[in-house]
Amino acid sequence: MFGNLFDKLKTGLTKTKENFTNKVTDALTTAIKIDEDLYEELEEILITADIGVETSIDIIEKLREKVKEKKIKDPLQVNDCLKEVIIEILGEDDNSIEPEQTPELLFIIGVNGAGKTTSIGKISAKLKSKDYKVLLAAADTFRAAAIDQLQVWADRSKVELIKHSEGSDPGAVVFDAIQAAKARKSDVLICDTAGRLHNKKNLMNELGKINRIIDREFAEAKKKTYLVLDGTTGQNALIQAKEFKEVCPIDGIILTKLDGTAKGGVVIAIKHLLNIPVKMIGVGEGIDDLQAFNSKEFVEALF
């Protein structure tokens, strides 16, 4: 099973590998010596792989130190040093989605189209398979499609869904879901929320109202907020994360659609600049393709 998941990860990251690692290998293979020109070329490759300017500069600085410390002269040996630096930047994994205590309330936020509802469906299926009693709340009431899509996932995962009609007050949905979660002794309540960022004040007010309801009605629950980002948007995903972080605290990031993009390097930038744990990454359509993020496996799959 482990090998199968790693193979899926490796396959899913093929486009990023082509955009990043293969170029690094070419640069190191053709280099005659380790000099300023090589470091500049590597920095450029990192930036074009959506790792971003700031993170790329930091990686190259750390790479210089490591190469000097290990007294490396052969350009080909720089590859392993680069892997080590990226693993160090990604840091310790914090990828468990299982509740630390029950009941737990998972607040899932993110812009429309990022894969928020699908991620909720896959997370609920994973938790259900581990014998947690899961309840879903369709609090993204601005899109009928979001409610319908969540119902499909609820049916597929064999979990219950609390929903109102399109255009209903999201706070009322969350209120009803909390009462249902308490009555049914649910372990985890997962709330889908409206994915709007164009008006930060509205979003802040909406999240503030929902949080007040949770604090009042479900004070005993451990509350966590996960942000879903579309990996295909590269550096825009990083900008979104910064903007959402200004509105509410974020406990973890779920990065989707990495199988369809060459911009998987943004994972490194997110961890480096925001210091928010990447909980899960999506490398395909299936339930098992939403995987717990493991930094060493991620880097191994890239290289």
TrEMBL record:
GO process terms (BP): SRP-dependent cotranslational protein targeting to membrane
InterPro entries: AAA+_ATPase, P-loop_NTPase, Signal_recog_particl_SRP54_hlx, SR_rcpt_FtsY, SRP/SRP_N, SRP54_GTPase_dom, SRP54_N_sf
Binding residues annotated for GTP, in chain numbering: 110-117, 192-196, 256-259
Entry GO terms, CC: cytoplasm; plasma membrane
SRP54-type proteins GTP-binding domain ranges (all copies): 103-303
Cellular location(s): Cell membrane; Cytoplasm
Membrane topology qualifier: Peripheral membrane protein
HAMAP family in UniProt: FtsY (MF_00920)
Assembly: Part of the signal recognition particle protein translocation system, which is composed of SRP and FtsY.
Job description of the protein: Involved in targeting and insertion of nascent membrane proteins into the cytoplasmic membrane. Acts as a receptor for the complex formed by the signal recognition particle (SRP) and the ribosome-nascent chain (RNC).
Name of the protein in question: Signal recognition particle receptor FtsY
Lineage: Bacteria, Bacillati, Bacillota, Clostridia, Eubacteriales
